[in-house]
Structure formats: C-alpha cells, structure tokens
Amino acid sequence: MLAIDPGTKYLGYASFEGEELTDYGVKAIRQTGGPKGMLLHAEAILQRLLEEKRPGEIVVERNAFSQIRQNARLMLAITLLHGLAKKLGIRVFEVDPRTVRKIVCKDGNVGKRELARTVAVQYPELKAYLES
C-alpha cells in the first residue's frame, strides 16, 4: 500500500507491506512554469512513485480545504493521481483527515503534532522528524 499526503508544494508518501513501513519521504514540487508546470512535475513524481513501489492500493488524504486559494491546483493533483492509478489498475481510497486521526489516535480532533507523536511511537524511525 502507498499512502499519499498531497499538496501543491510538497507531496508526502509512506509505503507499507502489511503494517511494516518500508519507505517514506517528502518530495518537493517545483513551482516553475505556473500551475501547468507544477502539475507536470507532480505527475512525474507520482508516476515515479507508482512505478517504483507498485502498490496494490493507494490511500490519499481527502482534500478538506475548500476555502483556500490553492484548492483548485490541489484538486487537479488529486485527479491526476486518480488517473495515473486507473491506468495502472491501482485502487485509490480517499480518507478524510479526521478519520485518519480517529483511527490512529482514537480522537478525530487531535492536532497534527499529536498525530505525529502517535505515529512516531508506532514507527520509531520517524521520531527524528518530530523536531523538524
């Protein structure tokens, strides 16, 4: 499984085999060339991740920011992910951020910091990132 946290400046990902975290990272999305350039670079990143990881399914955080200016670009990036996954026969599941927090922390209202601490307890190799 490949988990993706989409964005317009950065794309976070975590790759799992069962419950074992096998890889993770954050990819910077170039902002040159306007919205089209950003989408082309995001597509290249996603294509590379999908080819390298060959996931059976993808879990992506559902866009919950309907009031922000970058929302249109974010929705395009998520639509792009769906299209790439469909071409490769990969199922995509969108999960609401509150649902993720409820599953991981047993409380859908916790903040990002508490969510990060809880995840770092389960995956100690991520503790180094709590400080940054």
What does this protein look like?
- With 132 residues, the chain is of the alpha/beta class.
- Helices cover 44% and strands 23% of the residues.
- It is built from 4 helices and 5 strands.
- The chain has helices at residues 34-53, 71-88, 97-105, 112-122; strands at 2-5, 10-17, 20-28, 57-61, 91-95.
- Strands 3-2-1-4-5 form a 5-stranded mixed beta sheet.
- A hairpin with a 4-residue loop joins β1 and β2 (10-17).
- α1 (34-53) packs parallel to α2 (71-88).
- The protein is globular and about 40 Å long.
- The mean pLDDT is 89.
Short description:
This protein is of the alpha/beta class. The chain has 4 helices and 5 strands.
Label this structure with key terms:
44% helix; 5-stranded mixed β-sheet; alpha/beta; 5 strands; 4 helices; 132 residues
Q: Rg, please?
A: 15 Å
H-E string: EEEHEHEHH
Shape: globular
How would a crystallographer describe the biggest sheet? Answer: 5 strands, mixed
Strand order of the largest sheet: 3-2-1-4-5
Give a count of the beta strands, DSSP E runs of length 2 or more: 5
Chain-averaged pLDDT: 89
- How far apart lie the N and C ends? 26 Å
Instruction: State the helix count.
Output: 4
Structural class: alpha/beta
Strand content: 15-25%
Helical residue percent band: 40-55%
In the predicted model, the low-confidence regions spanning at least 5 consecutive residues are none
